[in-house]
Amino acid sequence: MAEGKETKARLSRWRLVFQSPTTRALAALAFVILLGIIFNADQAFFKWDTHRDMLRQISVFGILACGMTLVIITAGIDLSVGSVLGLTAVLFSLFSLQLHWPPYLAVAATLLAGLLCGVASGGLVAYFRIQPFIATLAMMVFARGMAKWVSGGQKISTAILQPDGTYVYQEVPAFFNFLNSKILAGNIAVVTLIFFFCIGLSWLVLAKLRWGRYIYAIGGNEEAARLSGIPVIATKLLTYGLSGFFCAVAGICQAAQELQGDPEAGLTYELTAIAIVVIGGTNLMGGRGGIGLTFIGAITIGYLEKVLSINAVGEASRLMLTGIIIIGAVLFQKFRQ
Amino acid sequence: MKKLVYLAMLLMGLLVLFSGCQKEETTGEAQPGKEKIKPRWTIGMSQCNLGEPWRVQMNLDIKNEAAKHPEIRVVFKDAQNDSLRQRAQIEEFINMGVDLLIVSPKEAAPLTPPVAAAYDRGIPVIVLDRRVLGDKYTCFIGADNKRIGRAVGEWVVKRLGGKGKVVELKGLMTSTPGQERHSGFREGIKGSEIEVIFEADMKWLEPEARKEMESALARFRRIDLVYAHNDPGAHGAYLAAKAAGREKEIIFVGIDGLPHEGQVYVQQGILEASFEYPTGGKEAIQVALEILNGQKVPREIKLPSRVFTRENIDRGGEWLEDQKGEERK
User: How far apart are CA A190 and CA A185, in angstroms?
Assistant: First the structure.
């Protein structure tokens, strides 16, 4: 009799573990890694290089997903992340490749530009009470247009147009090469470390600052949050602003990796960022979720793409498989209830 | 009050935008410092998508050539990759009463009727790069992707001595240029011992190309050459190889040869060769002037391409073997 009770208790503890969103997110990740182990493409999956490259490739998306997570927890959405990434990549290239600003100035100005874009969407959402979908959709179109306007539709690269129509190319600034390099004996990319840093920063905001509790409260019930004296407008402004800031970080990483600022950069990246957040298990209705989940989601999407890529799966099957696996992971998350 | 502030902000923003953008829309209008010549003819240029650098270059080529001829004025419109928008813009040009129309259509079928409508109204139409259906246009100017792909294939066979392992990074395979650059290349290497060991669709995008190349590098210890369907793709592959410390042992080849892209990459030693896919912008204006001056023009003009290599880049490239003598002066 006593033994039976114990089993029951152990069972429910197991159920509890199994029901936690983290476990479920990890299960999806494990499934994708299992796919990689089975379809290892002549052992390519077992090389550290493959994993290092996966982490590098997912970094830019992951950085965008950090901001997206915060915004989604407030029950909002930020569709402008891809475009703001494009704009900031162009600005950063313009500042450092063509205007030859020192790195700290170029970085600061670019981050400020991203922050302003975010605060602008946040202002539309918070002050004017425009739905986040609409406000950030407008910002998405606007920022893309601005990226094209600033760059004149051309990629901003180290090739400088001379008055006589020829091009002179210059050395890539050392700061670009640094961001584009790998450290710790070539074992991890600098952009990956930046991604980890952004994850850490978001965790700090969500778990350690009062601001983070406000974010959850607003996402849970905005009216209740307002009535209990939470500064809703300021919180939203800051949250969207931080998302814009992360876009600028991602834009700098993108420009450094491409050695140029492409006004088309980041097209449809917002969708990948949303997919990362959702696969992790953060609820689109707001109020629930976390940055750890987003980290797992980012790695899951990263491995999925990597496995499909090393096996040279055709584009059509790749898209269908990605769709199916995203739905599978999200359904798995839903079984909790 | 809130609404009023919002409206005022919106209006101000729009005003700033319009004052910033409107200037570049046309050429040939009163240049400061120069004697004013009233343009005799207006040419409408309907571009399907200015999101691609190659098409930006096309407009630039048109603009630069038009700037030499004060008797013409070119009005540019960008359809932003939308067939229906391009259709509407062609109709706007017809209503505007332009003297000649240059169209670089997004797709053949939806743009055939408006082009035909312009032609029936007596407006000469030059179709640039992509075709329309039927024969209701004045002149078609374009290059041949398949031929360029074949030239790359033949060049690769020669460069590798008839044997080697090649990675092919394909452009969007649902687009005709992607398909033709692929099939032409395969024709070019047919019969040799060139082996394509890895192929992937990088959708013309540099980050995608870098990603796919990293997979290829992880899988294969020996890669002799990378053929990318466009120069940004080849550049992305180069960056991947460089990150793996293997860029010295691999040859990179791309297509497009834009002055600020492929040609610069060749100069920098990143690509060993870039094959030009000419925009035809300059030729379009030359043909337009011939038409406007009442001369007869051929119904179809095939643009020859050049190949840029490290050896010939300073001489401005070299015309492809089978296309010598085709170039328009």
Answer: 12
